[in-house]
Amino acid sequence: MDRENEGYSTISVKDAYSLQNAGGLVFVCTKGADGRYDLAPVAWCCPLDYEPVSKFIAVLDTGHKTWQDILETRRFALAFPSIGQKELVERCGSVSGFTVDKYESFSIPFMPGKAFDLRIPQGVAGWVECSLIKTEILGTSGIVFGETLEARALDDWWKERLHYVGNAIYFRPGDRV
Fold first, then answer.
1. In the chain, domain spans
2. CATH top-level class for 23-163?
3. Among residues 90, 86, 83, 84, which one has the least CA distance to residue 173?
4. Neighbours of 70 (CB within 10 A)
5. CA torsion angle 74 79 80 84 (round to 10)
6. CB of 177 within 8 A of CB of 171?
7. By C-alpha distance, which of 41, 39, 16 is closest to 163?
8. 114 and 129 in contact (C-beta within 8 Å)?
9. Please, what sign has the CA dihedral across residues 104, 105, 107, 109?
10. Residue 4 and residue 67: Cα distance in Å, rounded?
11. For residues 57 and 40, what is the distance between their CA atoms, to the nearest angstrom?
């Protein structure tokens, strides 16, 4: 038996991404050219740069309304769900913004954005409002690159962040929920 590999299980190449998926969820919040607000939970988002301002990338499905809204308006917010918003994440991820007004259907209380006319769900740990720098498409995945124009957060935002790894596993640092 190979003692160096003892205790390790094989991960399929399809699921290998989960080893790096930090799971810090975001709601991508948008307003389309049609005037409708939308939000979509996304687990693939990360910082790109911090000087002279913070920049972020997020991976979206190019068939979703949030993608279309960002292309139309060149604006979006990344709102960081809190631990108490697990059910909201699941509900918002279960329907399309093309067919459902999520804010109305799920009675989502919101705060107005500061830099743009966007809706930020109340209770998030924080948010950043971004202007679109560019997009890249690979298959059905679209990457948005955004530059921060405004950012707000709770004092203890890092204690409140909801993370999602996959296979219905949610956690916050130190606690699995």
1. 23-163
2. mainly beta
3. 83
4. 23
5. -150
6. yes
7. 41
8. yes
9. negative
10. 45
11. 15
Helix (H, G, I), strand (E, B) or coil at 89: helix
H or E element that contains 145: strand 141-153
Q: Are 78 and 127 in contact (CB under 8 A)?
A: yes
State pLDDT tens for residues 66-79: 999 999 999 999 99
Place of tokens 């979006």: 76
Q: Burial of 67 by CB count in 10 Å (0-12 exposed, 13-18 middle, 19+ buried)?
A: buried
| Closest to 85 in 3D by CA, of 105, 67, 106 | 106
SS3 (DSSP) at 81: coil
Give me the phi and psi of 83, to 5 degrees please.
-60, -30
CA-to-CA separations, 82 to 6, 58, 147, 163, in angstroms, rounded: 37, 18, 23, 9
Amino acid at the residue 46: C
Token pair of 159 as six digits: 């204690």
Q: Give the residue from 133, 129, 132 showing the smallest Cα distance to 150.
A: 129
> Which tokens go with 11?
């991960």
Strand intervals (E) in 32-140? 37-42, 45-49, 55-61, 75-80, 110-112, 119-121, 126-138
Confidence (pLDDT) at 15? 78
This prediction has a pTM of: 0.88
Q: Which amino acid does the sequence have at 89?
A: V
Average pLDDT over residues 165-176: 73
* Tokens 């109305």 belong to residue: 104
